[in-house]
Amino acid sequence: MLFGSVEKPPRLSEFEMEIPEKLIAQNPADKRDHAKLMVLHKEDQAIEHKQFSDLPEYMRKGDVLVLNNTLVYPARIYAYKDKSEAKVEIFLLRELENDLWEAMVKPARKVRIGNKLHFGEGISCDVIDNTVSGGRVLRFEYDVKSIYPFIDKMGMSPLPPYIKRESTEIDKERYQTVYAAERGSVAAPTAGLHFTEDLLDNLKSKGVKIGYVTLHIGLGTFRPIMVEDLTRHHMDSEYYRVPGATATMINEARAKRKKIIPVGTSTVRTLETVTVSGFQITRNEGWTDKFIYPPYEFKMCDRFITNFHQPKSTLMMLVAAFAKKDFLLNAYKEAIKKKYRFYSYGDSMMIL
Fold this sequence. Notes:
Blueprint: E1 36-41, E2 46-51, E3 64-68, E4 70-72, E5 76-81, E6 87-97, E7 100-106, E8 116-120, E9 123-130, E10 136-141, H1 148-154, H2 169-174, E11 182-185, H3 197-205, E12 209-215, E13 238-242, H4 244-255, E14 260-262, H5 265-274, E15 275-277, E16 280-281, E17 284-288, E18 304-307, H6 314-323, H7 325-337, E19 348-351
Parallel strand pairs: 1-19, 3-12, 3-14, 4-11
Antiparallel strand pairs: 1-2, 5-6, 5-8, 6-7, 7-10, 8-9, 9-10, 12-13, 13-17, 15-16, 18-19
Helix pairs in contact: 6-7
């Protein structure tokens, strides 16, 4: 991170803000690209109110739109402990190796090492270890070739905790971007939920280039910051990949002074992780725990599309670093006044 000689990181309490519960979106918009779009102009602090389908107005031929193509799998699934009637909720976090998974379980106090959990259809798992974060390590047993079809069929979308309803089959479609391709996230890259195939085609016809990166979003995206001093907060590591084609597309656009426009905080973190100089990125993959908060000098983000995130969250910190904290907080107040919808299924913003 690059810090100025005078400016210091803000404190966590400076991002305190109450979002009216009625503005926290519980369901997706009727049509993806009909969400509201707040356009923030950093230079003169102006704010415009648009619709997401108006996005092409703010892009030019040769600009690069960068999308996170991670695919959310239906990570919440239910089982019965041993051969009793005790129902257990399992949140599959990630596959550690073949048939070995890290998961959160509920009620945790009743699921111990040595227990066997039964899912039906000949599928079960053994609880073989605890994790430092309070989860469990599960070893699956089954007679089929792969457990993924069963998870896709029986699992439910892992909606975030501020959506106060059970997930449905509709969420399997809508809590997923239309360009999702690489399986691995337990949370959607929500800024991308507003895109439609038609909108992407519209951008391409205008000469906007579209590149893809992958960052598999983990449960840590919802983990609150517990320290007032932001420099002491540590992000969970998440897997990322930047293919060579995307790196080349961005580097060529940079050389021509075109705009690089990431969609979502996960995309920004990925690009900032692989930047090798102020104007170049490289093909790469690995794990990143990059935490971006004010002040920060962005290297691969000229404009930025995102959602309205939870106050005091790591996502809001990143947006504040790009938009400047006071301007962002004023934009949130304006969004509340104009009755924008907040969080994962909510409305969007573009910062110029």
